Amino acid sequence: MEFSIKNTPPSKQRAACLAIGVYDSGELSPSAQILDTLSEGYLNKILSGGDIDGKAGSTLLLHHVPGINSERVLLVGLGSADKLDTKAWNSALTACFNVLFKSAANSAALYLFDQPIKQHDMAFTIEQTILLARQSLFVAGKLKSKAEPVAKHLKKIALIVDSAEQTAAETACQQALAMADGADLARELGNLPGNVCTPTYLAKQAEALAKEFELKCDILERKDMEKLGMGALLAVARGSSQPPKLIAVHYQGDKKNTAPVVLVGKGITFDAGGISLKPAAEMDEMKYDMSGAASVLGTLRAIATLKLPINVVGVIPSCENLPDGQAVKPGDIVTSMSGQTIEILNTDAEGRLILCDALTWVDKFKPDVVVDIATLTGACVIALGHQATGLLANDDALADELLTAGQQTHDRAWRLPLWDDYQSQLDSNFADIGNIGGRPAGTITAACFLSRFTKDYRWAHLDIAGTAWKSGKEKGSTGRPVPLLTRFLINRAGA
Ligand code: BES
Ligand code: MN
Ligand code: ZN
Q1: CATH code (residue 488)
Q2: Is residue 36 in contact with ligand 1, taking CB distance under 6 Å?
Q3: Active-site residue 278, yes or no?
Q4: Which of 116, 175, 408, 428 shows a CA-CA span of 20 to 30 A to 495?
């Protein structure tokens, strides 16, 4: 799909479909009023007919409107003009794209940008629109024998803005397209089943990305991890016949060798729980347990596309978590790379085990900040649902940067406390630390565990268990938090 920013007046527009806004008050939006004048009141007549109520999510497709060059005019309900928030916008635009993608129109012009989304600017509104379009266009069933495109005919979408907004809108468009490319990569990897997307496959994808954008990529093998003493990561990998990988991709956008942002993504390509086996229901969804890793690769794709002047290292510890005669057992004690011993009380709390060694290892990059991204706890889904990513950090300024980035791109996070008071839940009688903290505050104690390995730098943890994928009828990877991470890095790069 080709997206462009234009300011062509409706009278000169020749797109196969014009999308225009109507309100639930029964009024036309300012752009729609211009078209109404061209059509000598035809649109107002349609509105008073009552076939569209103007609520956000309502649509009405009209053909051959008198006085209009375009063959189709799509009325898009925007709800109430003074309550045009992100939720209303998203349902309006989703409905708009559904009709456009099903129609036979090969081009569309959206006259929907008379006003920005409430409490945001036009750049945000453009970004949301493009992210939404690309999400709707994403084909989840790539492994079906006959995969069909979502839009069979539509090739071009023009977003029509006031000429005063042209430059800002173009920047937003470019950034949103890069985010969408990154989110698509994350969605694609996330949706792949465990039998395809193995640690080796992830390593190959990282190498392919590195090759495409001329980045440096290192892959550490089992023997390298043994030399480094990564006893925690290796313990998780024991039950699987797939070899573990530790992937590092270096994006060097700032030639001045400034300290990098290190992104660490959990790359469990399938989490059966290990000997602490998970129940059967919905276990297939544990193929998504590498969504953190996928978001790291997606974000690298986005920032490399934008050529951001910043240094970033993407790190992915990856293995499977399966039960087997060789598998690590509850009660086993392992020594992490940091030297701290860990009593593995539940083999299903494996994410923190692979992350802790990766987090110790990344200190060698002398990071400015480290952000890890992980589908870490079911408790986070209970606490925050599918709306907000859980955020925990040992640094307030870093936490605020991430919260702000999430707001700016509507890929939001919510901070939970990382108070020392929770740390004692991890006490073990036999090792320095246990790998579980009991039922209370499961997301926080998971982060407490990680905090023991991140004392030497500024660090934040994003728990994406509730936001990385959708269950049920719409089952599929969301590509989150690629927009949040990309915006965070755009802000840091001052771009
Ligand atoms: N990958 C899961 C977390 C998860 C569970 C994400 C459900 C999304 C939905 C993680 O490895 C895990 O199993 N966590 C355990 C930790 C517990 C044993 C302390 C959990 O959340 O139940
Ligand atoms: Mn698990
Ligand atoms: Zn897991």
Answers
A1: 3.40.630.10
A2: no
A3: yes
A4: 116
